[in-house]
Design goal:
alpha/beta; 171 residues; single chain
Length: 171
């Protein structure tokens, strides 16, 4: 059974939402991804969100742009944690989405990551699950250690070859 539900309102959100799925894959966390428009197909959305707990979801990651109702509606219908990812939009750069997701009414919280913060949403979902899963907690610790080691290696390379050569190696 899936542990994390990943839902987006449009396939244009896929590049950002895929980052959440990639992190969950790396950490060995089961997930299921779908596209549902809360505005264009509310009946399908309501069925999906109301049945998410029964299908084994422990966390939902919901991405949305513009009015960004999808994360808040998930939180209204799903009794467990919801993480919202505001999508960068051409109209207002994603600030509209950020405000829509972060400004939920009292009693209906949505944990919110940065605009286009797919990877952080995946990490946060894993951290929520790791509160009751010691093996996942150990994988998260190893993931964090690898990130630290990667930064140390980059710093060592910069020191060794200088910034001009380092920049050239990035191209």
């Amino acid at each position: 059974m899936a542990k994390v539900g990943i839902v987006m309102g449009s396939d244009s959100d896929m590049p950002v939402m895929a980052k959440a799925a990639e992190v969950l894959d790396q950490l060995g966390v089961e997930h299921e991804m779908t596209i549902i428009s809360a505005h264009r197909e509310p009946d399908i959305f309501f069925d999906w969100a109301k049945s998410a707990e029964a299908r084994g979801f422990k966390v939902i990651i919901a991405g949305a742009g513009k009015a960004a109702h999808l994360p808040g509606m998930c939180a209204a219908l799903f009794p467990l944690p919801v993480i919202g990812i505001p999508m960068k939009t051409s109209d207002l750069g994603g600030v509209d989405s950020l405000y829509s997701i972060v400004q939920m009414p009292s009693g209906i919280p949505v944990a919110t990551v940065a605009i286009n913060g797919g990877a952080n949403a995946g990490i946060l979902a894993a951290k929520i699950l790791a509160a009751s899963d010691e093996e996942l907690l150990e994988r998260l610790k190893a993931y964090s250690e690898k990130m630290k080691d990667d930064v140390v290696k980059k710093a060592e390379k910069l020191e060794e070859i200088g910034y001009k050569s380092y920049l050239a190696s990035m191209r």
